[in-house]
Amino acid sequence: MDYLILVDSVSPVPKDFAPQLEEVGTVKMEKTAAEHCREMLRAAESDEVVIKVLSAYRTPEYQQQLWNRSVAEYMCSGETPSAAEKLTARYLAKPMHSEHHTGLACDLCSPDWDDTQDDFYATEQGRWLCVNAWKYGFILRYPRMKEHITGIAYEPWHYRYVGREHAEVIRREGLTLEEYLYYYK
């Protein structure tokens, strides 16, 4: 498994890609990512911080449903179809272009939430992850002020498994996955 696989608006998930999935609570992740995510959640809990995994592996069909729903919501609020797609693309990838298809990405939240939190960075869960996620091989995938590089708006809830060695460098150097792949690979 290539834990540094780049999936974005230009690079889709390979058609034959089939991660081995395991459960993490009520969702599924790639086997190794799931193991490290469970370890990270236990460590947070031992620090009296409970983190909920809101979303992880998604099928392309489910991603299409999310895409269609978001576009429709923007159109219902008066946006043109073109504008609705552009607004949707700020936070949501098109099917086959989502990291969630790899099983390596997860959206995290506070335990009493059932959706993403714009202010997740300011919660005890968000602060704990900023300090500790790298120890378990996870990076904040879409950091603030890096939208021009990632193509996705800041998402303080979206973490991606890359492996501890890579996560350590990415965090220490303040890089995105794109920058890391460009400079270090």
The number of helical segments is 7
The biggest beta sheet, please? 4 strands, antiparallel
The arrangement of helices and strands along the chain is: EEHEHHEHEHEHH
DSSP summary, beta strand count: 6
Structural class: alpha+beta
The low-pLDDT segments are none
Q: Report how far the terminal alpha carbons are from each other.
A: 16 Å
Tell me the strand order in the biggest sheet: 3-4-6-5
| Rg result | 16 Å
Average pLDDT score? 96
Helical residue percent band? 25-40%
Q: Identify the overall geometry.
A: globular
* Beta-strand fraction estimate: 15-25%
Give a concise summary.
The chain is α+β, with helices and mostly antiparallel strands. The protein contains 7 helices and 6 strands, in the order E-E-H-E-H-H-E-H-E-H-E-H-H. The protein has helices spanning 31-46, 60-76, 81-89, 124-132, 147-150, 164-173, 177-184, and strands at 21-24, 27-30, 52-55, 105-109, 138-142, 155-161.
Record the SSE blueprint.
Elements: E1 21-24, E2 27-30, H1 31-46, E3 52-55, H2 60-76, H3 81-89, E4 105-109, H4 124-132, E5 138-142, H5 147-150, E6 155-161, H6 164-173, H7 177-184
Antiparallel strand pairs: 1-2, 3-4, 4-6, 5-6
Helix pairs in contact: 2-3
